[in-house]
Design goal:
This is EXPERA domain-containing protein. The chain crosses the membrane at residues 20-44, 77-96, 108-130, 150-172. Keywords: Membrane, Transmembrane, Transmembrane helix. The chain is mainly alpha-helical. It contains 8 helices and no strands. The chain has helices spanning 2-11, 22-43, 59-65, 69-72, 77-102, 107-127, 146-172, 192-210. 22% of the residues are buried.
C-alpha cells in the first residue's frame, strides 16, 4: 500500500524543471492523441463508418457510433463542429506540454484553460442527450440495449468529463497568486507553488522599497 501511495505522490509532482504534475502532462498527451484520431474519424466519414474502407482502423469509434447516431451520420453538423473545436484543444494541449518543458510562466494557465474547454464542450455535448425537447429526434440508437448505452456512451463521455474536471481542481490552487495589497491583515499563508510566487512578489516589493522606489498605494 505504501508503494502505491509513494507512486501516486511521485506522479502528482512535477518533474525537474517542469511545472505540471506528471500525470497531468501524460493526460494532455493522451488527450491530444485521442482527439486527433477523433477529428480524423469525423472528417473522413463515411470512410471511417461501418462498411467504409477504414472501418477496421476505427473499430472502437464505431462501437460508440453504434449507440450515438450522430457519430454514425457523415453529415452531422454537431460532431463536425465539435471536431473543429477539438483542433484548438489539440494545439493547446501540445503548446501546454511544450511550455511545461521549456519553463514558461504561462504553462499552468494554458493547461488549465485547455482542460476547461474540454470539460465544458463535453458538458454541452452530453446535455444534448438529456431529455431533448419534443419534436427533436433522439440520436441514441433505439435498438441499443441499456448495457450498450452505459458502456459505450455514458462511460466514455463520463471519462472525458471527469478527467478534465480533476485537472481543473488540481491546478486551481496553483493559480492562486495574491497581488500585493489585496491580502487581509492576517492572511492564511499560501501553500505550494502559490507560496513561492507570493514570496517572490513580496521580495520584489521589498527590494524596490529599499532602493528608494515607492509603489503607489492600492
Amino acid at each position: 500500500m505504501g508503494t502505491v501511495v509513494d507512486l501516486l505522490k511521485r506522479w502528482d509532482r512535477p518533474q525537474r524543471g517542469c511545472q505540471l504534475p506528471l500525470w497531468v502532462e501524460i493526460w494532455l498527451g493522451i488527450s491530444a492523441m485521442l482527439c486527433t484520431l477523433d477529428v480524423i474519424y469525423t472528417m473522413l466519414r463515411p470512410l471511417t463508418n461501418r462498411g467504409g474502407p477504414l472501418e477496421c482502423v476505427y473499430e472502437l469509434w464505431n462501437w460508440y457510433a453504434d449507440v450515438d447516431l450522430r457519430y454514425a451520420t457523415a453529415n452531422d453538423l454537431v460532431t463536425m463542429a465539435t471536431g473543429r473545436v477539438m483542433i484548438i484543444e489539440i494545439v493547446m494541449n501540445l503548446v501546454s506540454m511544450f511550455m511545461n518543458r521549456s519553463g514558461s510562466k504561462h504553462t499552468l494557465i494554458t493547461a488549465f484553460t485547455t482542460n476547461a474547454f474540454v470539460f465544458w464542450k463535453t458538458v454541452v455535448y452530453m446535455a444534448l442527450y438529456i431529455s431533448p425537447a419534443d419534436g427533436n429526434p433522439s440520436y441514441i440508437n433505439p435498438t441499443a440495449t441499456t448495457y450498450d448505452i452505459i458502456v459505450y456512451f455514458w462511460i466514455p463521455d463520463g471519462i472525458w468529463l471527469l478527467m478534465p474536471l480533476i485537472v481543473l481542481i488540481r491546478l486551481w490552487s496553483e493559480l492562486l497568486v495574491y497581488p500585493p495589497g489585496l491580502l487581509s491583515d492576517n492572511p492564511t499563508p499560501p501553500t505550494g507553488r502559490s507560496a513561492y510566487y507570493y514570496t517572490k512578489a513580496s521580495n520584489i516589493d521589498d527590494n524596490m522599497s529599499n532602493s528608494g522606489i515607492h509603489l503607489p498605494a492600492a
